[in-house]
Amino acid sequence: MIRHLFTLMWNRRRANALLVVEIFLAFVVLFAVGTIGTNLWANYRQPLGFDYAQVWQLNFTTGAQPRTEQFGTQRQLMAELRANPQVAGAALTAGNTPFSFNDSQTRLDFVEPHDSTRRPSGPINTYYIGPELRAVMNLELVAGRWFGPADAVQGAHVPVVIDERLQRAMYPDGRSALNGLLAGNNEPSRRVIGVVRAYRTDGELQEPLPSMFEAILPNDTTFLAQSVLLRVKPGSGAALEKQLTDDVRRIGPGWTGTIRTLTDMHTVQMKMRLTKPLLLGSMSVFLLLNVALGLFGVLWLNISRRRGELGVRRAMGATAGGISRQVLGEILVLTTFGLALGLLVAVQFPLLGVQNVRPDIYFTAMLLAAGALYLLATVCALYPSRLAAGIQPAVALREE
Amino acid sequence: MTNLFTSATDSFQSQPATAPATGAGRAVLQLTGIEKVYQTRTIETVALNHVNLTINQGEFVSVMGPSGCGKSTLLSIMGLLDEPTSGTLELDGRPVQSYSDKELARLRNHKIGFVFQSYHLINDLSVLDNVELPLLYRSGVGGRQRRQRAYAALEKVGLGARTGHFPSQLSGGQRQRVAIARALAGEPEIILADEPTGNLDSVMGEEIMDLLLTLNREQGTTIVMVTHDEQQALKTQRLIRFFDGSQVS
User: Fold this and answer.
1) Which of A65, A165, B102, B117 could be cross-linked to B195 through a Cys-Cys bond (beta carbons 3.0 to 4.6 Å apart)?
2) Does residue A117 sit in the same domain as residue A208?
3) Which residues belong to any copy of the ABC3 transporter permease C-terminal domain (chain A) (predicted)?
4) Looking at beta carbons, which residues of chain A come within 8 Å of B105?
5) Structural domain for A317, as ranges
6) What is the mean pLDDT of residues A272-298?
């Protein structure tokens, strides 16, 4: 029967061409939306690497204070912040803080330890941070060590902590990256001293990039970090916020400070990241609705036009259930034709590595889109197939 | 219930054949007190009025009567495509009224072949695929066997060379021969033909009639044929006349 259905639908391909094209286009749109959705979901399932509840971000501006004085004021500010009984920890950081939409990327070469050959890396998120960041953000160290007092002394190599993603990029064979070297042009090379699970400041929905931390040296007078991540004690609220911004103004002449909670920043970022996919999703729902109505209408019309044929089939021995299954089978065969075309297009994406999306995400999206269209076709065919099953063969044959 | 039609006579038993019977045997179809009433909100139409009829194995019976006298309804009921309003239909001695849709479909598939005035071929299927149709609904017949039997049936009707053609590429006579081949492919005991020559010219009509006669004579297929052509009807073993839903001779 399956062969018969394929033969019948193939012979009717001209009459059903528009329907097949409609299914093909619906597949393409669903595949695109499915790829975006699957990609977001795959990103969401990966560890964020830090705990942002009870963490505030304090940004300060230095006004007209001479630069040479700014470092001293910053140290005084940090000391006062740490001394505040409501503050559990404070870490200086560059502006690429979690959920801030800021990033700082670099490209380095991976240096092979045995022959010193270099292999270029992709973009790496680089974080200049105070050593207290690990405690403030509850970073999980999985190998090696975090920054310590010994790292405050400038050595031959800059000590860096990397995340597991960068470790995998450096050594795809699964070796440990500890003591591995990352070299740049006209700058000191970095030596890996530790590995953390992750630090995804771009949020859960963004494709994570490899990350690397460099400690801000206590006596550094070249780079003035103007953000502080503060872990505050539970129950802290507006009063502490006011107190801290007042402290900034009091300590630094002409300085101003603003505070936002990472929870609020996270909410804003999630909303922004989800807006486009949700819009696309809504549009695809409307598209599917149109496809569904189209399928339903065409099927209904087909049943009316084919009463004679269905009557003959009953006369030849088809049961009412068999007719119902045939109508359902026909639409599934048409859907298969449309999907075959769609899959031909879709499979090019993983083959060509479009957008650097993982192939398994493309294949999952193909499966989801195909499944959704088969489900849609089945639902749309249910009522017309019941109509077809209810046709009285004698009446249908007489009408012919 | 208003009976708009009155029967000219009451029911009749099977009449003697107008042509010599060739091996008429057991009753394959037995209709007893068959009535068929079509009812709408405002009107009630009696299509068949208390019909008693026996069709024996190997008979070639023709049914004549004016348009609207119930001939096609009779064929539909005989072919298990329609249910009588009252009365009993027995196929091979077994009443079929209580049969489920599935059982009726199985009986139609195994026992009965249909030939229609307007052929009722599926235009989007090749001749061979059309002829395979009854076997498609029969379990236990594989694809190769279906093809072989469809080829054999087409050979019988002289269309072995047209298997790949589509109905639209054939003449009316050829289409009807395909329809007959389709009826034959399932090797049914009974062929019910509803005006099989009605859409054909006299030469084509003769061809089809000869084919049906040959089938009946050589294979012993029981045939019930509705026709308006007296000459063709006289070639069959028995002629039954209908008027206003009742059998009159």
Assistant:
1) B117
2) yes
3) 282-393
4) 314, 317-319, 322
5) 2-46+273-399
6) 89
Structure tokens at B150: 């469809």
Number of domains in chain A: 2
Chain A residues whose CB is inside 8 A of the B129 CB are: 4, 7-8
B10 phi/psi in degrees, rounded to 5: -80, -170
Residue A398: closest C-alpha in chain B: B72
Task: Say yes or no: A115 and A182 in one domain.
Answer: yes
* A313 contacts on B by Cβ (under 8 Å): 133, 137
Q: Interior CA angle at B88 toward B85 and B94, to 5°?
A: 140
Q: Which of B76, B120, B137 sits opposite A400 (nearest CB)?
A: B120
User: Residue B157: what pLDDT?
Assistant: 81
Suggest the residue from A2, A314, A316 to mutate for an interface test with chain B (most B CBs closer than 10 A).
Answer: A316
Both A243 and A359 in one domain: the answer is no
Task: Place B99 in a pLDDT band, splitting at 50, 70 and 90.
Answer: confident
pTM over 0.80: no
Asked if B108 lies within 8 A of A315 by C-beta distance, the reply is yes
By DSSP bridging, strand A55-61 and strand A256-261 are antiparallel
What is the CATH topology of the domain spanning B27-247? Rossmann fold (3.40.50)
What one-character DSSP code corresponds to residue B52? E
* Cα end-to-end distance, chain B, whole Å: 27
- Whether A314 sits inside 8 A of B105 (CB atoms) is yes
Contacts of B108 in chain A (CB under 8 A): 314-317
Q: Hey, are the CB atoms on A8 and B72 less than 8 Å from each other?
A: no
Tokens for B11, please give them: 């029911």
Beta bridge partners of A111: A118, A181
pLDDT tens readout for residues A168-184:
999 999 999 999 999 98
